[in-house]
Amino acid sequence: MTGAAARSARVGAAAAAEMEGKGGAVSVGLGFLGMGLDRVRLLPLPLPLPRPLPEKLSSKALRGHVYSNYLGSRWWRPLLLLWLLAFTLLAHSLFYNGSSEAVHKRRDSLASMCDERARMLQDQFNVSMNHLQALAILVSTFHHAQNPSAINQATFARYAERTAFERPLTSGVAYAVRVTHAERDHFERQQGWSIKKMYSSNKKYGPSGDAAAAEIREPAEEYAPVIFAQDAYKNVISFDMLSGVVR
To answer: What's this model's pTM, rounded to 2 decimal places?
Structure first.
């Protein structure tokens, strides 16, 4: 019995040594070998190993190898979906943040441009109003305070043309004087024309109408006829500014 066990042990050791000589990796296992329950021997047994990948594979064989070793299992699909979802959320977050920042910058730039434009228009308006007040003071000083008047239509038109750059928000100027009903006859004799209506019952005469063909203004408590105007608007002379259509 002892000799048979010894021979079996030597055969197993020889087989293991032969597999190691061929280059295969041998894993140690536990096996039971014996002739009876009273004598048990532990002998190394070889375990199966995965086949090595050949050096040269065709494309079809390579696809089959990759699929069987990597894509054949089901764990990669949820992982791929999770990666795609994370990438989509990250890209959406980056795009939203960049778009929001760009919109905010454009809004700030537009608000700044609007504020600058409003300040410029306000400055131009103030300059125009100051010059119009100065023009009114000039007419009051050299026309109403002088007898005879030191200003006529030609002088006013020439002065208004030369100072047009001081009024960037106006295309032209005209001067109207306040006249009461008691002063109307004296005023019309002094000017040499009658006060006209801006709008007629038959035809509307605006600032571009012909004052010679306009209707004479009916009696009223007060009037505001134009006595001076620039050459481009001298056709409005004698129109009553208070005779507009009341809506």
So the answer is: 0.53
